[in-house]
Amino acid sequence: MFLHELFYQIKCSLKTKELYIWIILFPAFLGIVFKAALYDIYNRQTKFETVPAAVVTVRDDPIFSQVTKGINESEDPMFSFTFFSADEEQKALELLDSEEVGGVIYLEDELSMKVKYDGMKATMLKTFIETYTFQETIIKDAVMKDPLGYQKVADALTEDISTVTEVPLIPEGTNTNYMTQYFYNLLAMVALFGSMTGLRKTVESQANLSALGARRSCSPVKKSVTTVAGLTANFIVQSLCMVFSVTFIRFVLKVDLGDKLPMIYLTAVISGLLGVCLGFLIGSAGTFSEDSKEGISTVVSLLMCFLSGLMAGDMRIKIEDRIPIINRINPSALISDCFFSLNMFSDYSRYITDIVSILIISFIFALIGFVLTRRRKYASL
Amino acid sequence: MQVFKAFFKVLRTKLTMAMIMMAVFIFIAVAYARTSSPTQKAFEDSRLNIALTDNDDTPESRSLIAFIGQKHNIVDPDPDMDRNIDRLYYGHLDCMLTIKKGYAEALKEGRTDDLFESKRMHDSYANIYILSRLDQYVGGVRASMLSGSSLDEAVSRTEELLSKEAKVSYADLNTRDDPEFSRTFSNYFQYMPYILIASVISALSPVLMAMQRREIRYRTGCSCIRSSSYFFQLILGSTAFVAVLWLIYMVVGIFLKGGMYEGKAWFAVLNSLVFSFVCTAMAILIATLTDNSRVVSFLTQILSLGMSFFCGIFVPLSIMGEGIKKIGRLLPAYWYISINDMLCGRETLESSKMISCFVIEALFGIVMAGAALVISRYSRDRI
Question: Based on the domain organization, do A138 and A206 belong to the same domain?
């Protein structure tokens, strides 16, 4: 009887339009939006590229010209300079306005700079000016002290030194693009949106909420069999959706989710279980209409996703700093953290903690759902 | 005003859900605004967050830490390495730096290699900057010592000279942060389109759909109410409801700001009012296009999240690619965000540009309302 129920429940689930809308079409749409709008921001904003600057020459300074020319010609330079005369200042400012340069340096008696915005590029250019002034002063000091021996001081200042040894923190080739966390959260959202199909099944088994539930309640099949078969069917269908989402993100959108792909699929499937159990809980609680329960499910899922960073990328870490307990119990944060730790760490300790938490929360949701739905009898409907 | 009254009667049955959504969205907006960076009044160097460990623990190493601390935030590394990795990944920590044992000794001897150890996540501007800053510091100390200074003198002279600030000004005064409408507070208004789209459509469209149900339309059609009056009362009811919703958001804004709006902030209020009108038109259009509540729910999410990512609500327009901005221009939220960016100083404030943004934004609303009118008339004719 269980297998019979399961077969028809799966058939019913596969014929549910919402399934395709919410768990396949909507995430695919969002995935495309993320890929188009966000994924490249990391390369443009965070990854270092030569900082361009305009120099307006109000007075001649052969040493400054020599230094900047040297930087322009060096391999992988930190800055690139374009020179303008005092009359051409407006051109330099236009470049600044169109953000083609990070700042306009004025070569006057005292070096100064104009920027459009503050930020890392402007700070680096400001530091360049300060360093130039600093080196100029040190050399002047040296000339004053020892006019013949200042060259070794100048050489020491301009010599390429490397005071810092870099120690690798994560395995080589790890994807450090923080925009990938949007895709982790997208997968968490797909998992939690599984609650919508979960709650539908529950509503359809409740005699006081749907006609189908009323028919089922007077059928000879045991309620526990119907409920477990319904949940299992949901879980199977949700797993298929999760597998589709991971495949779509990884192979169609070509987002690097790390090299532990089988584990990512497994995590996605387990996350789907959490969504189904959440739906079962919401569906079992109270006597709201199906529409209201769907609304609650959407809002709850989106709120959880907001707290884990679906809408503001670093929300999870901000919460970790202020109220870390939320990240330990928020299903969306746990799911996205699973994907994060699979990508970032070679050992599985954090991943296991997350996945066990997901399983415990799923069990609690399912247990409460069962408690709320058991032994319901209706004198009349 | 029977239709107007009936509108609110139907609305009352859907109000609980609308209130829950509104509370959640207000929570999201306030959380977003509260967790944003504090207001900045003039040009400031970017402050990096550096987790620093001093294994040398000498006066020279402590002096270096104090020097770095003048311009950057120095934090102790978390004993849990995973948390450090989290912070590095999300950019809340720029690098982990260790001053190696023997640092002071090496400085005395004029050695410059292998003095520090750095752990970092990204090949970022911040990392290149901090590494070059350390090289400059050590190079400066060595050069000062070569010109005859003692180590103590060289360290203090280097720090003194490197601490001298260059003169930096903004090319355009309009891009400065303005206390009337600070960037921190502007985040609340930046989030507003997401909240408005989601809450207005999800609350208003179901009511309008209920009012437009076939049998109700049949009954209204054969009553003595003129169709223009029916439509007008429906629009009036929708406008009144959205106006109340908008007022609530504005009052929350006053609390968040800590006082009444002033100066530029009033333009932000006006901007949100115009956008509320756009959302109302959008909700009416959706209600005329479909009578399926699940489709409405789906469209709400598509429109709210889609516009949020394409139009610079969740991620600033300034860091988005040109291709995406081109798509964004086809959506009303883009023009709302452009105005918001001009008001808070992220973009140059030009009155002509701002007026055209307002006009384009309002045009979206007018076009959608017009389309809704045409479609509803067409569907009535079909009966």
Answer: no
Q: How far is A183 from chain B (nearest CA, A)?
A: 13
Residue A59 belongs to a domain: yes
Claim to verify: residue A342 and residue A219 sit in the same structural domain: yes
The ipTM assigned to this model is 0.83
Q: Are residues A191 and A317 in the same domain?
A: yes
User: How many CB atoms within 10 Å of residue A32?
Assistant: 14
Backbone angles phi, psi at A309, to 5 degrees: 110, 20
Does residue A379 sit within a domain? no
In a domain, A146, yes or no: yes
Write down the H helix ranges in chain B. 2-34, 59-71, 81-90, 103-109, 125-146, 151-162, 183-211, 214-221, 227-257, 265-289, 293-310, 322-328, 332-344, 351-382
A339 and A264 fall within a common domain: yes
Residues A150 and A106 both lie in one domain: yes
Q: How large is the C-alpha radius of gyration of chain A? A: 31
Domain ranges of chain B: 2-39+176-382, 49-168
Task: List chain A residues with pLDDT less than 50.
Answer: none
* A33 and A59 housed in the same domain: no
User: The tokens of B99 are what?
Assistant: 């001053």
Helix axes B293-310, A26-37, angle to 10 degrees: 10
| Chain A residues whose beta carbon lies within 8 Å of the beta carbon of residue B123 | 47-48
How does residue B383 score in pLDDT terms, banded at 50, 70 and 90? very low
Q: Helices marked H in A104-247 — which ranges?
A: 120-145, 150-158, 180-203, 211-217, 223-247
Strand order in the sheet with A164-166: A164-166, B116-119, B95-99, B49-54, B73-75
pLDDT at B175: 57
Structural domain boundaries enclosing A128:
50-158
Give the span between the Cα atoms of A269 and A261, in whole angstroms.
Answer: 12
Whether chain A has a CB inside 8 Å of the CB on B218: the answer is no
- Specify the pLDDT at position B114: 86
Strand B95-99, strand B49-54: pairing: parallel
Report the Cα B18 to chain-centroid distance in Å: 24
CA distance linking residue B310 with residue B306, whole number of Å: 6
Element at B49 (helix H, strand E): strand B49-54
Is pLDDT of B160 > 70? yes
Average pLDDT over residues B332-361: 90
Query: A279-314 burial string, b = 16+ CB within 10 Å, else e?
Result: bbbbbbbeebebebbbbbbbbbbbbbbbbbbbbbbb
Q: Is B317 on the interface with A (CB under 8 A)?
A: no
Query: Domain B49-168 is in which class?
Result: alpha beta
- Rounded to two decimals, what is the model's pTM? 0.82
The verdict on A103 and A233 lying in the same domain is no
On whether any CB of chain A is under 8 Å from the CB of B102, the answer is no
Per the structure, the count of domains in chain A is 2
Q: Are residues A34 and A105 both part of a single domain?
A: no
Among the candidates A158, A191, A221, a domain finishes at A158
**CB-CB under 8 Å, B138 with A291:** no
At which of A101, A123, A158 does a domain end? A158
Q: Could you tell me if B266 lies within 8 Å of chain A, comparing CB atoms? A: no
pLDDT of residue B66: 92
- Please answer whether residues A194 and A329 qualify as being in contact, where contact means their C-beta atoms are separated by less than 8 angstroms: no
A163 lies in a domain?
Answer: no
Across the interface, do B125 and A122 touch by the CB < 8 Å criterion?
no
> How many angstroms separate the CA of residue A220 from the nearest CA in chain B?
33
* CATH code of the domain in which A100 resides: 3.40.190
Contact B194 A311 (CB under 8 A): yes
